[in-house]
Amino acid sequence: MTDDATPAHELSPEDAATIAAAVDAYAEAWSRLRSEFESMIAAYTPHFTAAVEAFRELYAYLRPVIDAYEADPEGFKAAIAAERARVSCHCLCGMHRDTMGICEGEAEPGAFLVIDSPTVGRQHIPMCRPCLTADRSRAHEVPSA
Ligand SMILES: [Zn+2]
Ligand SMILES: [Zn+2]
User: Fold this and answer.
1) Are 137 and 96 in contact (CB under 8 A)?
2) Taking the model in full, what pTM does it have?
3) Do residues 81 and 17 share a domain?
4) Structural domain boundaries, residue 16
5) What's the CA-to-centroid distance between 90 and ligand 1, angstroms?
6) Residue 65 domain flag
7) Distance between Cα 64 and ligand 1 center (Å)
């Protein structure tokens, strides 16, 4: 090793400058990255907070349903099936115009008005009990003015 040669364990001034510049560039890039993330977090925080609040409300609405299911899963499923099986009364209530307003709105399970249509054959029309038993004998009379 001679006096004018740089010892292996020391950096040349050029290498030291290169490394110092790289460290500065790294620090600046990292600072910018952190700053961008802080901006993103600041921008998203209100939306995230609102979303969490919306989920809380949804959960509050669903909690009784969840409780009902957990208390009696089979009963809950049966209740849902019964609800899905509900059918509205399909009566044309004008056909029993003497007793308009008797309709209960919901068809009674198994209660059908059976008609034989010349075009589509026999039809089972779901009906509520009052509509099914209403008098249709005057259905085709023209109401007097
Ligand atoms: Zn009716
Ligand atoms: Zn009805």
Assistant:
1) no
2) 0.48
3) yes
4) 12-85
5) 8
6) yes
7) 36
